[in-house]
Amino acid sequence: MAHDLFRVAIVGAGETGTPLLRQLLDAPFVRLLGVADLDADAPGMTLARARGVTTTTDFRELARLGSDLDILIDVTGVAAVREALRQEMQDTDNHHTLIVHEKVVQLMLSLLAGSLVTLKHGAQDY
């Protein structure tokens, strides 16, 4: 990596995204560029704003950060969101940013916890 910080954004700031968000906010090697959720008052959105992180209800805004963003984490559990993120990356010719699927997040959180972590998702449509 050419720089010493991971530049990260999260899509989904509810029960799954908020614990991950807390860990990212506390990591000195992570610069959190943004958090997106349809619910502007979701717990993670409130936490992000309190810590000075940009929030949006349009997850596509995060995908438009282009090469300024290293990792875009999608913890929504919604296939349409994943597809829209992929499409946005193609449309903007972004070959830099990695989209991390919720299953990878589940694996990482489970490893940290020492046991299987179950992800929770609301029934919101995107």
From TrEMBL:
SUPFAM superfamilies assigned to the protein according to its UniProt record, in alphabetical order: NAD(P)-binding Rossmann-fold domains (SSF51735)
Coiled coil feature spans: none
Taxonomy, superkingdom: Bacteria
GO-annotated molecular function: NADP binding; oxidoreductase activity
InterPro entries: Asp/hSer_DH_NAD-bd, NAD(P)-bd_dom_sf
A Pfam cross-reference name: NAD_binding_3
Domain (Aspartate/homoserine dehydrogenase NAD-binding): residue spans on this chain: 12-86
Protein name: Oxidoreductase
Source species of the chain: Azospirillum griseum
Source species taxonomy: Bacteria, Pseudomonadati, Pseudomonadota, Alphaproteobacteria, Rhodospirillales
